[in-house]
Design goal:
The protein is mainly α and 136 residues long. The chain has one domain: Orthogonal Bundle (Arc Repressor Mutant, subunit A), CATH 1.10.10. 59% of the residues lie in helices and 10% in strands. It contains seven helices and two strands; from the N terminus they run αααααββαα. Strands 1-2 form a two-stranded antiparallel sheet. The mean pLDDT is 84.
């Protein structure tokens, strides 16, 4: 006899996982970071000030760059909320540097062209609304 409770739970978990991955992919498409950024952030971790100063190294040419390092930091916080980045920790606690999460590695490996996809207007709208009012 099939356990319907377990079957329904698995379906719900799969739906949640798909929503999380879709939201993370949308966030990546809407930000101006190139593949070098994601590679460097995975290897070394980066802080907002460094990323802002190295525009030529980390900007995806087709997208508008940030006005300040605080706007880069705001994007980092958004990527932390959607599960793509995490803060580095040292002996003193959290640092200003961020790194990729396992979810980010999975999403970027699965869809390697994701960074280069131009977001649709609806993607920008949904991403912007979620940034202002997260997950409501």
């Amino acid at each position: 006899m099939k356990n319907l409770a377990t079957s329904n739970s698995l379906n719900e978990i799969e739906l949640i996982d798909n929503k999380v991955i879709k939201r993370a992919a949308r966030a990546i498409r809407c930000l101006p970071f190139n593949s070098q950024f994601y590679s460097d952030i995975q290897k070394n971790g980066l802080d907002a000030k460094t990323v802002f100063q190295k525009r030529n190294q980390y900007q995806l040419n087709s997208k508008k760059w940030f006005k300040s390092s605080s706007s880069v930091e705001s994007s980092f916080r958004w990527l932390i909320i959607v599960g793509m980045l995490r803060r580095e920790v040292d002996g003193q606690g959290l640092t200003s540097k961020v790194r990729l999460t396992p979810l980010a590695k999975q999403v970027l490996e699965k869809e390697s062209k994701l960074i280069f996809l131009e977001p649709r207007l609806i993607d920008k709208l949904i991403n912007g609304l979620h940034r202002e009012w997260p997950f409501r």
